[in-house]
């Protein structure tokens, strides 16, 4: 098929995007990503033992935060950042000064497309974030802004401008992101299907957001990307990104922002232990049955015009409606408020944020 | 999880807008030959139909349509709408229908796609409209529900409608096609997706399948453009029909899938010539979509007929005064419900 005469190259955005990586072991995986990640600033959030030194491969420009740094910078508010769980990554979102964030797990590698070519996942995420979403009407040819696609017959012209894209949710080949029960039943299943599509998740529809290969516009939706209270001392794990995803989608729907899912694929190499996972997820699996109806029926008042206002309102409703499911949700609701307070402190509008950063607490 | 759908529960319905169906039928022979076919000849077509041997089929022409339907209806079964007559007289549980200018497509590996088999799979496995699965259809081979998908929603709901796609000539509206005359859809997206509940979708009639027993009455020939013609981009009837189907399915707790299978659409027609005719359709969508987004059906509407009746009245009330086309559509919908009750649901086929 004929390619369009001019395809404008995807901007690098190297001064506008931070890559946030949570890690507890090492960052060897970055070697494979070097051709694609080198131009960018990395924010490494080191989980676990702060006395351990994490080696960052040579040549990368990065800042690294361990638990001691998090405590120093946030003081008592550090209680909202999880320990011993990749949920701690959201600290990286908070301290970033950039417009866009890409977050990736340290067991995710470069995948190949069906033609055998290495996939530059970051470039695809940027394309997704820079082009509009179409949440109000499903386009049967998927992303209409992609080369070679368009809106189909019957798609109202008034909806063809779309809305700004806040989130780009990428997928994974090889080890699929299954929950523990599914992993136990199908330990050998691998995702080998390359689905060549990006689609906007329609307004009013929830989805399970995986944090393994995720990009978002921090300016548009950053404060909603709180990954909750997980891991050490908490009754639940492996629901951090799920929680962030449900909050984010509800707020995006309310504010008229778009969420896309589909390309790019990364290669997920490590299958976590399903028995360990089961223990972490156990409560989540049945709490979920209450959480989903909650999120499906949430309405935010019209005067919630910023992400922070939406999020605080959401935290109130969490306390009101989910507090009775388990005491954990009261704690989580409080942590949600703490998160917003910390976010606003580290990201004041107008003032020189650098001063506050250095002052610590 | 999947239903066992038998060959004799299926009718393949083809609306013949061209007289020579020889190459069409021969190309589809490997996929069609097991099934009973209903071919409905466009009443406006003057020439005799040429159909190759070796198929189990019934052909309906203008005199048949006139006899069964009579002249008292506002429904016009001409052009692309002739296929609806086939849906009406079929006595099978499932219908697969495609345009007569489509041929089997090839997948990414170069294999011919059995569109019929894929539609059957889509209808036989549940749909998941209440929560989006990021790995798409969890009932496909090698896939499942992802982490975070609520367990109570994993049994899904019955899939009542399967909307397939097209390679080569994509189903764009006339203005888009006129602007990009060289663009062809060459992207084979290897996925089946449930359209989420409350999300509306422009359903193209080119390559569809549905459970006639459950949603038959919701597929209806109602919205007819003043200048409706014999090219898809000169029509809106399927888009209107598809909106009805989605609204009815959402209300009745049924699922709608889109994606695979693909068919190959032959190039034909001149989009610029069609611009004048379809432009009014494009304008109408600006009213049609908000209307369907806001339609609410009462709890007492528990069948597709009930639902269509309610939608028709809502169309009359809310859109009838905006454009005579809508008023006619509402009347056609009410006529269709009556027809369906008298002809569509009787136990014996109205053979003439």
Automatic annotation (TrEMBL), chain A:
GO MF assignments: UDP-arabinopyranose mutase activity
Biological process, per Gene Ontology: cell wall organization; plant-type cell wall organization or biogenesis; UDP-L-arabinose metabolic process
Enzyme Commission number(s) from the entry: 5.4.99.30
Positions of the record's site feature: Required for activity: 153, 160
Catalyzed reactions per annotation: UDP-beta-L-arabinofuranose = UDP-beta-L-arabinopyranose
Subcellular location: Golgi apparatus
GO CC entries: cytosol; Golgi apparatus
Main location: Golgi
UniProt superkingdom: Eukaryota
Pfam families: RGP
Positions glycosylated per UniProt: 153
Keywords: Cell wall biogenesis/degradation, Glycoprotein, Golgi apparatus, Isomerase
PANTHER family assigned to the protein according to its UniProt record, in alphabetical order: ALPHA-1,4-GLUCAN-PROTEIN SYNTHASE (PTHR31682:SF5), UDP-ARABINOSE MUTASE (PTHR31682)
Record family assignment: Belongs to the RGP family.
Function (record text): Probable UDP-L-arabinose mutase involved in the biosynthesis of cell wall non-cellulosic polysaccharides.
Name assigned to this protein: UDP-arabinopyranose mutase
Gene transcribed to yield this protein: LOC111312941
TrEMBL record, chain B:
Lineage top rank: taxon: Eukaryota
Glycosylation sites: 147
Keyword Transcription regulation: no
UniProt main location, coarse: Golgi
Catalytic activity, as annotated: UDP-beta-L-arabinofuranose = UDP-beta-L-arabinopyranose
Swiss-Prot/TrEMBL keywords: Cell wall biogenesis/degradation, Glycoprotein, Golgi apparatus
Enzyme superclass (EC): isomerase
GO biological processes: cell wall organization; plant-type cell wall organization or biogenesis; UDP-L-arabinose metabolic process
EC number: 5.4.99.30
Subcellular location: Golgi apparatus
Record site: Required for activity: 147, 154
Gene Ontology CC entries for this record: cytosol; Golgi apparatus; plasmodesma
Record's protein name: UDP-arabinopyranose mutase
Organism: Durio zibethinus (Durian)
């Amino acid at each position: 098929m004929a390619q369009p005469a001019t395809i404008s190259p995807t901007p690098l955005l190297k001064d506008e995007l931070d890559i946030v990586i949570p890690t507890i072991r090492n960052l060897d995986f970055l070697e494979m990503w070097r051709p694609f990640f080198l131009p960018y600033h990395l924010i490494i959030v080191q989980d676990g033992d702060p006395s351990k030194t994490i080696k960052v491969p040579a040549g990368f420009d990065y800042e690294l935060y361990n638990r001691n740094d998090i405590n120093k910078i946030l003081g008592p508010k550090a209680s909202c950042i999880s320990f011993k769980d990749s949920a701690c990554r959201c600290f990286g979102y908070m301290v970033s000064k950039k417009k866009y964030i890409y977050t990736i797990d340290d067991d995710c590698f470069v995948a190949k497309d069906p033609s055998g070519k290495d996939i530059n996942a970051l470039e695809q995420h940027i394309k997704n974030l820079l082009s509009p979403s179409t949440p109000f009407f499903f386009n049967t040819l998927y992303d209409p802004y992609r080369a070679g696609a368009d809106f189909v017959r019957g798609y109202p012209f008034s909806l063809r401008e779309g809305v700004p894209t806040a989130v780009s949710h990428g997928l994974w080949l090889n080890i699929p992101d299954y929950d523990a029960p599914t992993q136990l039943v199908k330990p050998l299943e691998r995702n080998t299907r390359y689905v060549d599509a990006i689609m906007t998740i329609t307004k009013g529809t929830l989805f399970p957001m995986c944090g393994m290969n995720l990009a978002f516009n921090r300016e548009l939706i950053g404060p909603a990307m709180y990954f909750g209270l997980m891991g050490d001392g908490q009754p639940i794990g492996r629901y951090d990104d799920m929680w962030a995803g449900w909050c984010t989608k509800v707020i995006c729907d309310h504010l008229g922002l778009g969420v896309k899912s589909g390309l790019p694929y990364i290669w997920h190499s490590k299958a976590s232990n399903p028995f360990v996972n089961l223990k972490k997820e156990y409560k989540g699996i049945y709490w979920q049955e209450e959480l989903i109806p909650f999120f499906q029926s949430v309405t935010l008042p019209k005067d919630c015009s910023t992400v922070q206002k939406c999020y605080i309102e959401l935290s109130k409703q969490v306390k009101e409606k989910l507090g009775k499911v388990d005491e954990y949700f009261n704690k989580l609701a409080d942590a949600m408020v703490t998160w917003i307070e910390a976010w606003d402190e580290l990201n004041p509008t107008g003032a020189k944020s650098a001063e506050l950063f250095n002052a610590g607490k | 999880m999947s239903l066992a759908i038998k060959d004799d529960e299926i009718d393949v319905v083809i609306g013949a807008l061209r007289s020579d169906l020889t190459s069409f039928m021969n190309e589809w022979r490997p996929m069609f030959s097991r099934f009973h076919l209903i071919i409905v000849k466009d009443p406006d077509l003057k020439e005799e139909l040429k159909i190759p041997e070796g198929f189990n089929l019934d052909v309906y022409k203008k005199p048949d349509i006139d006899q069964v339907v009579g002249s008292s209806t506002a429904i016009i079964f001409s052009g692309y709408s002739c296929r609806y007559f086939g849906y009406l007289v079929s006595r099978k549980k499932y219908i697969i229908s495609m345009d007569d200018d489509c041929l089997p497509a090839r997948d990414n590996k170069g294999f011919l796609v059995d569109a019929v088999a894929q539609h059957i799979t889509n209808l036989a496995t549940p749909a998941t409209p209440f929560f989006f699965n990021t790995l798409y259809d969890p009932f496909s081979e090698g896939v499942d529900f992802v982490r975070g998908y609520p367990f109570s929603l994993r049994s899904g709901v019955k899939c009542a409608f399967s909307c397939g796609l097209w390679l080569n000539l994509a189903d764009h509206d006339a203005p888009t096609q006129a602007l990009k005359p060289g663009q062809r859809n060459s992207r084979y997206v290897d996925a089946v997706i449930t359209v989420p509940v409350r999300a509306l979708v422009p359903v193209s009639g080119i390559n569809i399948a549905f459970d006639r027993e459950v949603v038959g009455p919701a597929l209806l020939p109602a919205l007819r453009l003043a200048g409706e013609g014999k090219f898809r981009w000169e029509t809106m009837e399927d888009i209107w029909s598809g909106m009805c189907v989605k609204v009815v399915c959402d209300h009745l707790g049924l699922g709608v899938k889109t994606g695979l299978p693909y068919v190959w659409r032959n190039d034909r027609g001149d989009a610029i010539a069609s611009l004048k005719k379809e432009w009014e359709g494009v304008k109408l969508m600006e009213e049609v979509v908000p209307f369907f987004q806001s339609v609410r059906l009462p709890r007492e509407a528990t069948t597709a007929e009930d639902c269509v009746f309610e939608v028709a009245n809502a169309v009359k009330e809310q859109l009838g005064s905006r454009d005579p086309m809508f008023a006619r559509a509402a009347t056609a919908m009410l006529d269709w419900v009556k027809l369906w009750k008298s002809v569509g649901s009787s136990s014996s086929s109205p053979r003439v």
